[in-house]
What does this fold into?
Amino acid sequence: MKKFIVVLLAALALSVPAFALEADVAPFEVWLHNQKLEHRATEYPLLVYKDITYFPMTYDYVHRLGLTSSWVDGCFYLSYCPVTSSAEEAPAYAPEVSKIKGEIASYPIYINGKLLDNSKEEYPVFNARGITYFPMTWRFATEEFGLSCFWDGKLMIGSGRGVIGGNDFRVPENGRLYFDRQVYETYQSEENPGYLGHRYIGDKNYVFDPAARTVTESEYMPKDYLSDYSYRGRIDEKLKISGNYLMYENILIDDLADYVAAEKTRETPLGINVFGYEFDLGGGKTLINVDMNYKTQYVQPHTVSPTSLWFIRNADGSFGKLTFEHEAGFKMAEYIDGKRYLSLEFYDRMGSFYDQYGCKTYIVNDDNSLTPVEDADHGNVRLVGQSGGKPVVLATWKYEREGVSAVNDGYFAIESDGSLNKIYPYVYSDGEISYNGHLYLLIWRNNTIVDITAGEEIEF
It folds into this structure.
C-alpha cells in the first residue's frame, strides 16, 4: 500500500495544476459485496461530489471492486479484472472529518484501454490526499466496472457478474453469430439489511450480423456451442487397458505397469476407468487426452487419483507422447498458414482443489516437439483465435484469475518469427470467436461486441 501511494504522489508531482474542489465524506452507509464499509475515519474515505459517491482507487479498493490499476509515465490506467480472490489490507486510520479538499485530475487517465477526456465529464475524476477518486455513476460503475448498485437510504454495491451474464458465441450459421444471456433483477433483502440479491427473470437470445454490424434479438438459437467442448471428440470406445498397456484401437500407445500395479495393491482392487478426447491440430495431426482413475465401490465412474496423459497421433497412425510438469487441460487449437498452435491450461490437482498455474501456448512442430510462444513480460499466454490471418493470444503478466496489468497486458498477434505484437489493450471478455478473418470479443457488462481486427465496438 505504501509503495503504491509513493508512486502515485511522484506521478502527481509531474502533473499540471488542476481545478480545486471540496467533497463531503459520505454520511450514509455504504455496503460493498454485502459487507459494510467503516470508511469515515480512514485515511481515504468515500466521498460525495455533485451528489455522486466517489471511491478512492487505493490498492485494496481497486481489487475489491474487481479492477486492476497501474501508474506508468504519469498516466493512470484502470481496467475491469474480476480476479477470484483479493487479500484486503488494513486501512490506515485518520481523524474523522466531514469534508476533504481535492482537485480535478489533470493527468492522463485510461479506462479499459481508452483515454478519458476528463475535462468534458459531468462527474469528473478527481484527486484527494494523493489518491485518484472515481464516480460511481451508471457509466463507470455498471458499464465500465461491471458492478450492480442499489440505493435505499444507503448505497449497496455488488458484483454484476451474477446479474449481467450470458453464454459465449455459438457455432456460426448463415453468416451470423448467435448468443444468449440470462436476465436478473437486483433487490435488497428484507431479512439482511445491506444484502443484495438477484432474481432470475428469463433469457434473451441475440443474433449478430458481422456484415451489417448489427445485433438484434432472435427467437431462433442453434443448439451447439462454440466452446472448449466443441473441439472435443469422445474416444472412450477406442481406448482400453490390456494387461499393463494402454491401447488405442488395439494399438499400444503407453506402458501403465506402475499404475496397474498400484491398483492391484489396494485392499479391494476393482479395475481402472479409462476415457478420453481428441482435438484436431491440423496438418494430419490429432491431440489425444486420456484420463484414468481407479474404480471404487461407489457409483461409477467415480474419480479417485486421476491420471491424465497426452499424445499426438500422426497422419500415419503412429503416436508420440507429450510430458508436462503439471496437470493440463485443453483450451484451444488453431491451424494457421501451415502452423499448428495449441493452448493448454496448467494446474496442480489436489482432490477438489485446483492451484492454477495459468495458460501456455505452443507451436506444434512436425516432429511433435513444442515451441512455446512467450516473452519476458507475460507468464500467461492464452490462444483466443486469429485475426487477419495471424494467431492471437491474450497475454497477461499472471494467470488471468490472479492478476492483470492494465498497461502491458492485452491481445497480441503472433508474428512469423514467434514474437508478440500488441494489437488491442486488455479487455475482460466473456467469450471470443474468430470468424471470416476477424476476432470478436463478447462483453456482457456493457452489452458490447468488440471487433479487434477492425478496432470497432458494436453495442446492443
